[in-house]
């Protein structure tokens, strides 16, 4: 970490949110798998990270989201001005995101880029699909960390993923499209791959961005739970 960097210090608050960073301008948490980022439809889907954060920080505002099944780093802004600044940073791709996943099979190469446009699969919402004609641009870089086997002996691979865009379900659809769905993925993996994990094995490991108030480089990270 270079001079002028800011670092994050984990903590835990009573509402079961693990704090990775908190200051007067932004908050970052380690979202557990299974917790919604924002409220869903219905009374049974009101518990979420955003609601829990609001209970302690009334000015907390959502900036980006993680899928319910995905764990890891998520950032919230404090106040409208910071929400605008952080939302612009994400939209303009000034935030470096790194994910870890365990996928089915062994890729032929050690690294690669998936450049496949994505669009909503409207008859099957919330699912997404590759659409080479009407889809929005979506790019994911991947690299092999290790090749191993699942408990049933099937080959699987731990990957690091660096998305250059932020489409809904981008990493999950991209990996499924190249024949390596994420273990435990109830939406995009075949049944035999779903049952190899009790949860989706996809984790937002780190974010690197310029602090919206100080411009200092801020890296926020949390350990991979699998």
How does this model look, in words?
With 226 residues, this protein is an alpha+beta fold. The chain folds into two domains: 6-93 and 210-221, Pseudouridine synthase (2-Layer Sandwich); 98-202, Pseudouridine synthase, CATH 3.30.2350.10. 14% of the residues lie in helices and 35% in strands. The protein is built from four helices and 14 strands. Strands 1, 2, 3, 4, 5, 6, 7, 8, 11, 12, 13 and 14 form a twelve-stranded mixed β-sheet that branches. It has a two-stranded antiparallel ribbon with strand order 9-10. The longest helix is centred in the middle third of the chain and has 12 residues, at 80-91. It starts with 5 loop residues before the first strand and ends in a 5-residue tail after the last strand. 33% of the residues are buried.
- Shape, please? globular
Structural class category: alpha+beta
Order of helices and strands: EEEEHEEHEEEEEEHHEE
Please tally the β strands and state the result. 14
* Biggest pleated sheet: 12 strands, mixed
**Helix share bin:** 10-25%
Taking the alpha carbons of the first and last residues, their distance comes to 26 Å
Give the secondary structure arrangement, pairings included:
Layout: E1 6-7, E2 11-12, E3 18-22, E4 26-31, H1 49-56, E5 60-62, E6 71-78, H2 80-91, E7 96-104, E8 111-115, E9 118-120, E10 128-130, E11 139-149, E12 155-163, H3 170-177, H4 191-194, E13 202-210, E14 217-221
Parallel strand pairs: 1-14, 6-13
Antiparallel strand pairs: 2-3, 3-4, 4-6, 5-6, 7-12, 7-13, 8-11, 9-10, 11-12, 13-14
């Amino acid at each position: 970490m270079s001079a002028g960097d800011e670092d994050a210090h984990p903590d835990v608050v009573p509402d079961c949110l693990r704090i990775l960073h908190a200051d007067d301008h932004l908050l970052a948490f380690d979202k557990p798998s299974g917790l919604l980022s924002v409220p869903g439809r219905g009374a049974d889907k009101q518990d979420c990270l955003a609601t829990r954060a609001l209970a302690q920080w009334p000015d907390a505002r959502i900036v980006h989201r993680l899928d319910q099944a995905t764990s890891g780093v998520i950032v919230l802004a404090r106040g409208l001005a910071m929400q605008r600044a952080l939302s612009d940073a994400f939209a303009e791709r000034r935030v470096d995101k790194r994910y870890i996943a365990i996928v089915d099979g062994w890729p032929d190469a050690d690294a690669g880029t998936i450049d496949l446009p994505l669009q909503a699969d409207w008859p099957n919402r919330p699912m997404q699909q590759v659409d080479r004609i009407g889809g929005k641009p979506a790019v994911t870089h991947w690299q092999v960390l290790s090749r191993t086997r699942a408990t049933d002996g099937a080959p699987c691979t731990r990957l690091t993923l660096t998305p250059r865009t932020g489409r809904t379900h981008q990493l999950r659809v991209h990996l499924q499209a190249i024949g390596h769905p994420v273990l435990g993925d109830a939406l995009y993996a075949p049944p035999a791959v779903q049952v190899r994990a009790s949860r989706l094995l996809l984790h937002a490991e780190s974010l690197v961005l310029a602090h919206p108030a100080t411009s200092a480089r801020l890296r926020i990270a949390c350990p991979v739970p699998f």
